[in-house]
Write a structure and sequence with these properties.
Length: 93
Protein backbone atom coordinates (compact mmCIF):
# COMPACT_ATOMS: atom_id res chain seq x y z
CA UNK A 1 0.00 0.00 0.00
CA UNK A 2 1.29 3.47 -0.88
CA UNK A 3 0.88 6.41 1.48
CA UNK A 4 1.69 10.01 0.65
CA UNK A 5 3.20 11.81 3.61
CA UNK A 6 2.45 15.46 4.17
CA UNK A 7 5.87 16.98 4.66
CA UNK A 8 6.36 20.10 6.75
CA UNK A 9 8.42 21.46 3.85
CA UNK A 10 5.70 20.80 1.28
CA UNK A 11 3.94 23.49 -0.61
CA UNK A 12 0.47 22.85 -1.85
CA UNK A 13 -1.44 23.72 -4.96
CA UNK A 14 -3.95 20.95 -5.63
CA UNK A 15 -7.36 20.40 -4.08
CA UNK A 16 -6.14 17.23 -2.35
CA UNK A 17 -3.32 19.20 -0.75
CA UNK A 18 -5.84 21.87 0.27
CA UNK A 19 -7.94 19.19 1.96
CA UNK A 20 -4.90 17.83 3.78
CA UNK A 21 -3.88 21.33 4.86
CA UNK A 22 -7.40 21.97 6.16
CA UNK A 23 -7.18 18.79 8.26
CA UNK A 24 -3.77 19.83 9.59
CA UNK A 25 -5.09 23.29 10.54
CA UNK A 26 -8.04 21.61 12.22
CA UNK A 27 -5.66 19.37 14.20
CA UNK A 28 -3.58 22.40 15.26
CA UNK A 29 -6.67 24.30 16.40
CA UNK A 30 -8.00 21.34 18.38
CA UNK A 31 -4.73 20.11 19.86
CA UNK A 32 -2.84 23.31 20.53
CA UNK A 33 -5.54 25.94 20.92
CA UNK A 34 -8.10 23.65 22.57
CA UNK A 35 -10.84 24.54 20.07
CA UNK A 36 -13.88 22.27 20.14
CA UNK A 37 -13.55 20.06 17.06
CA UNK A 38 -17.26 20.33 16.31
CA UNK A 39 -16.85 24.11 15.80
CA UNK A 40 -14.12 23.79 13.18
CA UNK A 41 -15.27 24.20 9.58
CA UNK A 42 -14.16 26.07 6.47
CA UNK A 43 -16.63 28.84 7.35
CA UNK A 44 -15.73 29.08 11.06
CA UNK A 45 -14.64 32.56 12.10
CA UNK A 46 -11.26 32.25 13.82
CA UNK A 47 -11.93 35.11 16.23
CA UNK A 48 -15.67 35.02 16.90
CA UNK A 49 -16.51 31.31 16.75
CA UNK A 50 -13.17 29.68 17.56
CA UNK A 51 -12.08 32.37 20.04
CA UNK A 52 -8.56 32.73 18.66
CA UNK A 53 -6.92 35.84 20.12
CA UNK A 54 -4.16 37.92 18.54
CA UNK A 55 -1.36 35.95 20.24
CA UNK A 56 -2.90 32.67 19.07
CA UNK A 57 -3.17 34.12 15.56
CA UNK A 58 0.57 34.87 15.52
CA UNK A 59 1.30 31.34 16.76
CA UNK A 60 -0.94 29.94 14.03
CA UNK A 61 0.88 32.00 11.38
CA UNK A 62 4.22 30.61 12.58
CA UNK A 63 2.91 27.05 12.42
CA UNK A 64 1.46 27.60 8.95
CA UNK A 65 4.84 28.87 7.74
CA UNK A 66 6.54 25.76 9.17
CA UNK A 67 3.89 23.56 7.57
CA UNK A 68 3.80 25.11 4.11
CA UNK A 69 7.00 27.11 3.78
CA UNK A 70 4.82 30.15 3.00
CA UNK A 71 4.63 33.23 5.19
CA UNK A 72 1.38 35.14 5.27
CA UNK A 73 2.28 38.82 5.63
CA UNK A 74 0.72 40.32 8.79
CA UNK A 75 -1.29 42.86 6.79
CA UNK A 76 -2.89 40.01 4.82
CA UNK A 77 -3.49 37.89 7.91
CA UNK A 78 -5.39 40.78 9.50
CA UNK A 79 -7.98 40.40 6.73
CA UNK A 80 -8.34 36.63 7.26
CA UNK A 81 -11.46 35.71 9.20
CA UNK A 82 -12.28 32.07 8.41
CA UNK A 83 -10.30 28.89 7.92
CA UNK A 84 -11.33 29.05 4.27
CA UNK A 85 -9.79 32.54 4.09
CA UNK A 86 -6.53 31.11 5.48
CA UNK A 87 -6.46 28.45 2.76
CA UNK A 88 -7.32 30.98 0.04
CA UNK A 89 -4.58 33.35 1.22
CA UNK A 90 -1.99 30.55 1.29
CA UNK A 91 -2.96 29.46 -2.22
CA UNK A 92 -2.31 32.99 -3.55
CA UNK A 93 1.22 33.19 -2.10
Amino acid sequence: MYFLAFSSQATYNTSMDRDRLYLKIKDILVDQFEVDESKVSMQADLYEELEIDSIDAVDLMVQLKELTGKKIPPEQFKQVRTIGNVLDTLSRL
